[in-house]
Amino acid sequence: MSDTPEYEAPDHVGNPLVHLVRRYARPYGARYAVAIVGTALAQVPQRVPALVVGVALDAILLSSASYSLPLVPDGVIPTTTEGQVTFTVGLLVAAFALDGALSWLSGRVAGTARLRTLHDVRVDTFDALVGREMDFFDRRQTGDVMSVLNNDVSNLNGFGNNAVQGLRFVTQIAVAFAFMATLHVRLAALLLVLPVGLALLGRWYTTRVEPVYEDVRESVGRINARLEDSIDGIATVKSFAREDRERDAVAGASREYRDRNWSVIRLRLIFNYSSWSVSSFSFVGLFAIGAYINLNGAPPVLGHSLTAGTLLTFLLYSKSFYGPIRQLMLDVLDSYENALASSKRIVAVLETDRQANETGADLDVREGRIEYDDVSFSYESSDEQQLTDVSFTAEPGSLVGIVGPTGAGKSTITKLLFRFYEADAGSVAVDGRDVTDVSPRSLRDHLGYVSQDPFLFYGTIRQNIGYAVDDPDDEEIEHAARLAGAHEFVTGLDDGYDTQVGERGESLSGGQRQRVAIARALLREPEILVLDEATSHVDNETERQIQESIDALAGERTTLAIAHRLSTVRNADRIVVVDDGRVVEQGSHEELLERDGLYADLWRVQVGDTDAVSEAFLQRARAEDRPSERIESAVDGEVSR
Ligand SMILES: Nc1ncnc2c1ncn2[C@@H]1O[C@H](COP(=O)(O)OP(=O)(O)OP(=O)(O)O)[C@@H](O)[C@H]1O
């Protein structure tokens, strides 16, 4: 399996995660602001119980100090023990209720804002993805591309969740510190030494974990690509009884994922354990120092003494001080690193030179003349030149057949007409307009295409034919199906046009799928029709039917028909013979037979007249590593037509 290229965010994007947040979180800024303020405010009632319990312990249970609370006027506080107990319970209930209400509100607002943001990211990423040039897809596996939309966007969701959590931790730490400082400022200051240690640990962790997370994201893409390949090719896997091999391949990808993930877990464990040790020892240290001051009075450097209740409050606060710092370092930084790796991939899809579908002038097809003028082309992913100086013209309304041996470049020629790729030299023009000057969308609006391996979407036959246009009515669909020779077999199916077809049209035969695809192309009534071996799967009778339809249609629209069965294009106005990326002959069937060149040999092979095939042709067939089926069978004398 070849490695798919990495996803690189373009240079103008600094931090890809910040870039995404700026672009996608901003529209929901008001919601995020409410969530942030709500989360911050909730920290105040959350810190109240520990304070109140400490004061109540000293005042009610130990009777060692008077009942007094910061910011609460003494006049409000009851003087009797019963009154103070009731007052304490009331304060605790109020604090919990306020905390609950604020947390619920901010959780709800943050949740909806986060989901909306992610929805926008997902939809925009998909939009950018389908707008990418074909070359982008040629070089990548479907599963890997899908993992950007699924796993990477989900990682952002995880980060969104943790970011809210992180915000809570930050305010929790700040509020806990403020409360501690009001109780005993010097002891609180002493506690600050420890977060510095934890921060240094956190720094160590993030620098190590960042590259590992990028590797993990890549292996998720690889696993998905592997799975997609095996499931997509399940018929081939089973026919070769290669299930074990697929299992091994998936196991290999999964092992890589497991090992890389283990590196993350190992780092997490080291960080987790050391930060846990730091905070546990500091808790013990705090108790020891606090108890010492309580019993012996404070040394000058620590200022004043402290009561047992204050020590208890301090210890409780220290829990909401160290815990969040550790969590902040671990979960929040962790999901930040993970999301950073994911956002790099998302931004790479979202931001790099996507083909602008809408840019360029609109194409106005008046006649439908197609002209290839000295076109040369090579695929970006290939070192070889696939087309060299290809020139031919399809007159308006004519049928032009394109024939030639396997791999000659026939499909490539038509892909340039659709501007799936652009010619390196020369031009492809429709009615004198270079296709690179018009917007791809307007160009394709005028073109109909039936590929070698037509793709049927999951849905009914009606939906598949109707896919070509917006809101087609049943009559139009039926008319197109009749023209494509599909109506008869469709009405013979139990559910007729409502028959459900699989993702790859698995429940239909190859010929039936092809006819559905032809109907889909015809429904659009394109001015120009491209049929890529559209009759390769069909039987002779169906071929004749389609043939008739094509002949009938050809008068109305310019048609390029790539054919292996030369009989399909026998009646074509012009036949272009392609060999090794060059046009070697062109003319009508009769003219080409007269010429006695490559076409004449191909024709003889097809009609089974192998004795008459030229020696040069036979030598060439034998010299090829993998002679095409037809040449092989021709040499074996198996061709019946
Ligand atoms: N996306 C691609 N990236 C790189 N090379 C490609 C790509 N598609 C086709 N090729 C190469 O370009 C050459 C021409 O391919 P093309 O599909 O145009 O041939 P063809 O004449 O239509 O063949 P066939 O009759 O077998 O369908 C082949 O060598 C093929 O390997």
Question: What keywords describe this structure?
Answer:
single chain, 641 residues, alpha/beta, ABC transporter transmembrane region fold, Rossmann fold, six-stranded mixed sheet, four-stranded antiparallel sheet, 21 helices, binds adenosine-5'-triphosphate, ABC1_TM_sf, ATP binding
Structure, explained:
This protein has 641 residues and is α/β, with parallel strands linked by helices. Helices cover 61% and strands 9% of the residues. It has 4 domains: 16-351, ABC transporter type 1, transmembrane domain (ABC transporter transmembrane region fold); 363-446 and 526-589, 3-Layer(aba) Sandwich (Rossmann fold); 455-524, Rossmann fold, CATH 3.40.50.300; 596-641, no CATH class. Helix 3 (81-131) packs antiparallel against helix 5 and helix 9 (243-296) runs antiparallel to helix 10. The radius of gyration is 37 Å and the shape is elongated. Mean pLDDT is 82; it is low at 625-641. Strands 6-9-10-3-11-12 form a 6-stranded mixed sheet, with helices on both faces. The site of adenosine-5'-triphosphate has 14 residues, from helix 11. This is ABC transporter ATP-binding protein. It is a multi-pass membrane protein. Keywords: ATP-binding, Cell membrane, Membrane, Nucleotide-binding, Transmembrane, Transmembrane helix, Transport.
